[in-house]
Amino acid sequence: MADIDEEALDSLVDGTLITRMGIVVDHVSAEKTTGSMPVEGNTQPYGLLHGGASAAFAETLGSFAAMAHAQAEEIAVGVDLSITHHRAMRDGTVRGTATALHRGRTIATYDVRIVDNSDRLVATARLTCAIRPRPET
Asked: Per the domain annotation, does 15 fall within a domain?
């Protein structure tokens, strides 16, 4: 299992969509990964949290958990994401938790729950990642 320390995490997200969306990953482990994302800056034209932003947030958390599950010479890439939006948000911050459902040699699947500041369910997602050899750089 690969360890992802804070310095490695920062270098992975620098200049990515994760940074532009204001996603902060608090804790990374193969079993459970947590983080937060601001609603501001991630809304659709009606001022509501954009469903695509919630999907990107869910995929980020699940992918980081899958990376922690993968071996050091491997990467995890999302191959299937399903998300259901339960509650609209106009402001504040959402928090997410990705919890392992299956951690195999080549596939890892995570349940992702996104909640508001009152712990009310905003969205639920399921992400499946393929574990692949790290490409040559």
From this structure: yes
